[in-house]
Design a protein that fits this description.
The chain has about 210 residues and is an alpha+beta fold. It has seven helices and nine strands. Helix 2 packs antiparallel against helix 7. The radius of gyration is 27 Å and the shape is globular.
Length: about 210
């Protein structure tokens, strides 16, 4: 009887060990599959962006990131926190907001978390639509390019590269009348100007936003 009990005990132990081994194997396999999946996702994301040899390459990558709404990539073009005393970035965020939604005093900095929350206001519809129309090769060769006005004539972009100061300037110009949301913006022209410093002759870094007009 004892022999039978011992045999049953050994069988149960062996079964438990087998189940434990199978479970561990499945967990390890699942972990490996997750790692492989994450690696493939990272590789796919990186493949959307070209190698940077000149500032033109980085400009193209920036444009792709804005088009895709890739906040992680867009944030690589910033040094956070941004000093709000030297840029009108908060004005860009609240430009189209109701007066009641605007804070009485803008924060002194613009952080990475602020960008995650407000990137669509920083790079708004007018910026995106006009940015996509910039002929990058012509901009690189001539140092300047102005896009045709958006249908309806409400906005366009003037892109200029200043070699002496290594600065790329992207100006969204409103012709008066209405903005990209169809809202009245008053008489005359106005512009929202984005400045990017070009580091090491090839990497774009956000400098500031200013308003004109």
């Amino acid at each position: 009887m004892k022999a039978i009990n011992l045999k049953c005990s050994l069988s149960i132990t062996f079964l438990c060990l087998s189940l434990l081994t199978a479970c561990t194997h499945d967990q390890a396999k699942s972990k490996q599959e997750d790692i492989k999946s994450n690696a493939q996702a990272t590789q796919a994301a990186q493949s959307s962006y070209g190698t940077v040899n000149t500032w033109l390459d980085d400009f193209k990558n920036f444009r792709t990131a804005v088009y895709k709404g890739d906040t992680e990539k867009m944030k690589t073009y910033f040094n956070f926190p941004v000093n709000a005393d030297t840029t009108q970035i908060w004005e860009a965020v609240y430009e189209q907001a109701d007066e009641s939604k605007r804070p009485p005093n803008s924060p002194g900095t613009f952080t990475e978390a602020d960008f995650d929350k407000h990137y669509k206001e920083v790079f708004n519809t007018a910026f995106l639509k006009s940015l996509l129309k910039v002929k990058s090769e012509e901009l690189f060769k001539k140092g300047a390019y102005t896009t045709p006005a958006e249908k309806g004539g409400s906005f366009s972009m003037a892109a200029n590269y200043d070699k002496a100061t290594a600065t790329l300037q992207l100006s969204v110009m409103y012709s008066g009348g209405t903005d990209e949301n169809g809202e009245e913006i008053g008489e005359g022209e106005s512009a929202t100007i984005y400045f990017f410093k070009v580091e090491n002759h090839k990497y774009l870094k956000f400098d500031k936003i200013l308003f004109a007009g």
